[in-house]
Prior knowledge:
Shape of chain B: globular
Distance between the termini of chain A: 6 Å
Number of helices of chain A: 3
Largest interface: A-B, 31 and 28 residues
Strand order of the largest sheet of chain B: 2-1-5-3-4
Structural class of chain A: mainly beta
Structural class of chain B: alpha+beta
Mean pLDDT of chain A: 84
Low-confidence stretches of chain B: none
Radius of gyration of chain A: 21 Å
Helix content of chain B: 10-25%
Order of helices and strands of chain A: HEEEEEEEEEEEHHEEEEEEEEEEEEEEEE
Order of helices and strands of chain B: EEHHEEE
Largest sheet of chain A: 4 strands, antiparallel
Oligomer: heterodimer
Helix content of chain A: under 10%
Low-confidence stretches of chain A: 1-95
Amino acid sequence: MAKRKGAAKGKKAKKAGGPAKDGRAAKGNATPMADNAIQPAVPSAATAAQGAKPAKPAKPAKAAKPSKAAKPSKAAKPGKAGKAPRAVKKTAAAGAKRRRRGKPRTVLLVGTRKGAFILRSDPARKRWAVDGPHFLGSIVHHLVLDPRDGGTLLMAARTGHLGPTVFRSSDWGKTWKEAAQPPAFPKVPEGEKGKVVDHVFWLTPGHPSQPDVWYAGTSPHGLFRTTDGGATWSGMHGFNDHPMLQRWVGESGGTPDGPKLHSILVDPRDPLHLYLGMSGGGIFESTDEGSTWKPLNRGVAADFLPEPNPEYGHDPHCVILHPEMPDRMYHQNHCGIYRLDRPGDVWERIGNNMPREVGDIGFPIVAHPRDPDMIWVFPMDGTEVWPRTSPGGRPAVYRSKDGGRSWKRQDSGLPKGQGWFTVKRQSFAADAGDPVGVYFGTTGGTLWASTNEGKRWQPIKEATYLPHIYSVTAVTL
Amino acid sequence: MKVFIPSPLHSYTGGRSIVEGEGRSLTELLTFLDGRYPGVRFRIVDEQDQVRPHIRFFVDGEMAPTIRTPIAPGAEVHIICALSGG
């Protein structure tokens, strides 16, 4: 339950970069809380983007145990509104009730090209207190709350000059501690060419039964894991040294801003069951906690490749699974919008149901935290030279309430013309409020919010002129 | 030896732009600095021991081609964040 405290009036955050014998604490330019900031007490948190609390924390499974995800889901019937398993629904209802009682607030964690920002709403989600910038000038690719403790933040950052690293805060950004061993590829013998992490692009908290585990995806493609809450990171051998990896991702330099490993998903029922997405590589699945991987791309178009139905080499932009019905997956691809109901393994192009003049190209995709059939996408122009802007300069969100069988345009409050928005794959998020709040950040630095599930949009006036937005995560406290 | 630290690394050195260093080569100096200011090495040298693209080292005014460059006793080392755009 959130509790409104007096702000940090007169209480300065520890000065960034203070003489640091150990050198790691409070580095960067962490800023004191704004005077009017609403500071959350954080006994629990639910985050739609990262997955709300699972109904039933899975027991740590034995390595050889087959994934539970292989079982057919009663609820996941293609093309039909699904019902979540009873236990999951009960927990969700209890969580919603608790949040209603406590007048929940939304916190937005925003990564930008010039630092990180933390926005805290009032209970109506109308007014926002902005805390930041944290690490002004640093490129922040991802800023993520750990839903398992509701108070730890991990941030993937670099600067134009300095190499990539990960920072951790356990006091909502008042102080930060840098990883002692950030994600890095192994050093190769003299004379050989080894891989170098350019940036850490993606952070995913591990399974609830593994409280200090996180996963990181890098550019170039690399998968890393920490078991100590982000202090030391190791490459996941089963992926990074997979004999097929080079063939999966090809020889090119990847996408314009570097090839990304993203959308690392942990099945809330089974810590061994993982998915990931690679721009210029495809979607892959592991059922043994990352020791082995197999492609999961059947049915996905790859019209930029000579072979129309390859096994891999696709370009997923953002992959999600529904936290309360983990057999329901969606993804926004370079070539369309898709849904997959496991244990099926053929993606259905639900983007074919989008208006033809809008198309089904985009980067992010977001699910309603309690309704596996409700999703939002943000279409962008993927014609000719791929402008990656709102089609026709008329930005709109499209929402489906039936798992992608039909779509509704949601543009109330958005510009009617000359609105050339670009929204990156990590910059679209939903909170766990009732009704759900939906948020997106543009590369032009404006945060847009809807407190009624996309029916009406307005810019968050306290965050209209941020730097180029890289990521937005919504948390309900 | 005196080591001149560029501003992007001041958060590691407690705001100091000049620190004392030790070592007979840049490799040794970087090990020394990372011991005193943990994490600083990886920000300027990658996991393959290559100096990051926009960082340069100067030893007594001469640009060092690699981190294996030797350092004479009493030398001054400048770590530079290269200008690489407007």
